Amino acid sequence: MSGCSTLASADSDPGTLLVHTQLGTTAPGSATYTAVVKAFEKENPGIRVKNLVNGDDLPQVYETSRLARKEPDVVMVNLYDKTLAWTDVGATVDVKGYLDDWGLRDRVLPAALTEWTDGKGRIRAFPYFATNWPVAYNTHLLDRAGVGSVPTTGDQLIGAARKLRAKGIAPVTVGGNDWTGQKLLAQIIQTFLTPEEARQVYTSGDFSGSRGARAGIDYFVDLRDAGVFADKAQGLTSDTMTTQYNTEAAAIQSAMSSALAKVPAKAAGHTEIGGWPLAPGAAHEKPTILRSYTLIGFWVSPNGTKKISTVEKFLRFMYRPDVVSRFITESGRDMALVTDTVSKDFPLVAEAQQLGDRVGQALLPDLYVPPTATQPLITATSTAFTRGTSAASVRSALESAYRTA
Amino acid sequence: MKFGRSWLPAHIFAWLYMVLLVVPLYYLLVSAFKTNDQIFGSPFSLPTSLSTTNFTESFSSAHLGPAVLNSMLVTVLALVLTLALAIPAAFAIARTEGRVGALVERVFSLGFLIPTFAALFPTFLLAAATGLFHTRAFMVLFLPATAMPLSVVILVQFMRTIPREMEEAARMDGASTFAVLRHVYTPMCMPGIATILLLNFLTFWNEYLYSLVIIGPDPEQRTVQVALPTLKSLTGTDYGILTAGTVLTLVPVWAVYTVLQKRMQQALVSGAVKM
């Protein structure tokens, strides 16, 4: 029956490069990706790129394909959760040699190379998309509430939240029930942690054993109970967060570049990009943001190594400066590659790109959290954003996430 | 027709039930014409525009056209196979009076005890071992297997209500066993057949997990339930487009349900007269 053309698999054509991707439908950057793939096929008449599109379930689908030895040649996905284990278990190959042989190493930002390199010196994938994760402040709403400037300290933030609430405006909106809340919580916990201490805490899950982590959780609880976060934040998601900010129902959000690109022109016109306010005695000198260079990379599968010359052509094309620029100018994406291009149609994304040393940087914990603890940590995040939960209970919930993993 | 006061609670519950069914459908339909901000800002308000942009965008970006065709192919072939297997099996069990027949009937009933998730990994291994991984053919074979317990149990009950005299009369006219099944049992079991067709159509059409893992994400092969979630993105879902895509995929379900429901009612009435 496998020979029946109507019902059979069609994935073994040697002239076809199979790319498993999350781009291709409505995800930010999809239109540009589809267009550049067409341009690649036009330049390389003998090669056809077949995109296999999945959403959030891509890692699961790829893993089952790999188990059956029928995996696609290249995978475009972020370094997070399940994918952290791929290189180790041989689901994808170390691309360090290819990166050097093809002369593409210089195209990659050094920070991106560091993040994509594992503990054994292997480079898990070819870095591609990055993201800035700053804090967006609606200055129009702050003005309306009588807040003269963007808050840079915890006390100023609490004061601003009180004034905003008095005017019926939600202060900081956040998806307390999903990954956006998890990232903001991690950022606030790191207020009193150096990057090395943060790395240790998020690797071990020992939030009680670190004085800095305890102080960071206390700071978070103080902010939460002072009404800094939107009502019922523990039940909100990234979608409700962006909607509250975009419709100007909330004045502040911690948003990654893809969310900043979607802020409507009206709200974007009076949005100022900055960092998260610090408490006295913080380990950072300036308000912090998150940055990640692991948003999307090109992973090469064992099947991909059998078509490595085609993979090389594809990756050389995707790394070309003109192609990289298209993702910035057309889709407002941040790239993990060296480029001078700045987005003009996405002013908030550009503003975030130019923050430079005006802000401090907190550690994105994704690379250090054990894959099995990722989802339990999001559940614990919801507990943390629930008003009245003590700092001890928050620590306990976070530590339980590591224990159940 | 006049109703007394005693009917009032029944009316209230009937209307409440209707509201429970209609509100989600209304929400789905109006969301298909809105932007994200409108969906979250005023979820139950009427759309300000009846633009079909969300529909065309969902149809083209998720390649829903081929996906609907794939779903139809898999569903129709699986339904045909289910009927081809379940009708003779039920016929044999219904006519058997010995212990073996009872045992076989119980074996079919045991199928209800297998949880869907528990069978996923062995099924995946089977697909890989048979070389049918990443094919729709495997799903055409697999779906009837999952539907057999319910289908056989329902059909056996219908066939047991058919008087033996009907078969004896056919036999006296020289009918073979197959002719008895074809011309006596099958027509008289149309209510049961329509019922299992309807139930299995809904199950097969809406199947997601196995289609995702076994058929995979290839746009030329994937079913509509696998294509639809590609409109959802962790870094920003356009729910207007997603709900528009959902509405589009519901149209075939609605059409088949309407047709089969009517046929089922007709078959029920005609069956009652015949018997």
From TrEMBL, chain B:
One of its GO terms (cellular component) is plasma membrane. GO terms for biological process: transmembrane transport. The lineage of its organism: Bacteria, Bacillati, Actinomycetota, Actinomycetes, Kitasatosporales. This is Carbohydrate ABC transporter permease. It is found in: Cell membrane. Residues 68-260 form the ABC transmembrane type-1 domain. It is a multi-pass membrane protein. It comes from Streptomyces sp. gb1(2016). It comes from the Bacteria. Belongs to the binding-protein-dependent transport system permease family. PROSITE patterns: ABC_TM1. Its main location: membrane. The chain crosses the membrane at residues 12-33, 72-95, 107-132, 138-159, 180-202, 239-260.
